[in-house]
Amino acid sequence: MSVTLALESVEPASGPWPRRWALGAALAAVPLVLFGGSVTTLGAGMAVDGWLIAEGHFLLFFPAEKWFRDTATFVEHTHRLFGVLVGLCALACVVATWLGEAGASARRSAFLALGAVCVQGALGGMRVLADDSQLAFLHGALAQLVFAVLVANVVLVSGEWRAEPAPVGARAERVTLARAARVAWLGTLAQVALGAWYRHGLRPVPVASEGLRFLLHGLGALVVLASAAALLRRATSLRAAGPLPASLALSLRALPVVLLVQLVLGGLAWAGFRPGAIGPAEWGLSIAHVLGGAVLLAALTVIALWSARLARPEAAR
């Protein structure tokens, strides 16, 4: 989230609206991820019967008395409403890029962000209609990736991205940084999927493979730490060589903080888990851990995008 907030001062050549709508979609995705994590924690995925037509009502006109009838229904329906809000912001971003002179790359990025939101929404709908636990896992595993795409879209439609980046350091250092960023990004994406696999095996009762899932998720955390440390080490010389693009510099500064917070949240959420009941501590810690994973992946996505661009031969010119 801090990555998106730092981009508010960046003015694209096509006007402020593409960036504003992209930023709106990314910020609206924060409560979407939190409520989505709550749905998984509470096992509330089937609390509302139906999808676009929910219990005889169109999604947006779901009665308030049903919406607030119990915690599971409130969490599930609110999750859907935030999904609609994110989709509308992403659609408005696409329209803004076409009405202005945003350029082909900004239009492609806006379309990609909208497509990611649509695919994620369709997966959620099919999961409810089919009552399919595998679709529930896939929907949960892709949530953080969609958030990262939305944050990346804020960068890609900005004036900062459209401007020619100033060369920083030797090209060999930039190429090395780009490779390290790709490794860290892929490792974190795999860790996000392992985390979703582990969480979806805890409710309503822990599955037989719960121990294996936890072990793999723990090993994945070590991989993420090692790859992120290598990335930060390679970025040190470039940061000392000259100013980096604002969103890249912010992401590099935020990365170690987010990693530390994620480790603490993950350990506390694991310690607070009780198979027979869901307490406030587990609920809050688990969804904070999910959001932390989304922020971590988003920061690495921004780093990977910028480092790949800076590594191109034309960037040296």
Task: Give the arrangement of secondary structure elements.
Blueprint: H1 2-5, H2 17-42, E1 53-54, E2 57-58, H3 64-67, H4 71-99, H5 104-130, H6 133-156, H7 159-162, H8 171-199, H9 210-241, H10 246-271, H11 280-310
Antiparallel strand pairs: 1-2
Helix pairs in contact: 2-4, 2-6, 2-11, 4-5, 5-6, 6-8, 6-11, 8-9, 8-11, 9-10, 10-11
Could you describe the 3D structure shown?
- By secondary structure, this protein is mainly alpha-helical.
- Helix content is 74%, strand content 1%.
- The protein has 11 helices and 2 strands, in the order ααββααααααααα.
- It has helices at 2-5, 17-42, 64-67, 71-99, 104-130, 133-156, 159-162, 171-199, 210-241, 246-271, 280-310; strands spanning 53-54, 57-58.
- A two-stranded antiparallel ribbon has the order 1-2.
How many individual β-strands? 2
Class by SSE composition: mainly alpha
Total of domains: 2
- Span between termini: 33 Å
Query: Which term fits the overall shape?
Result: globular
Helix-residue proportion: over 70%
CA radius of gyration is 20 Å
Query: Beta-sheet strand percentage?
Result: under 5%
Largest sheet: 2 strands, antiparallel
Helix segment tally? 11
Mean pLDDT comes to 89
Unreliable segments of 5+ consecutive residues: 1-13
User: What's the order of the H and E elements?
Assistant: HHEEHHHHHHHHH
**Largest sheet strand order:** 1-2
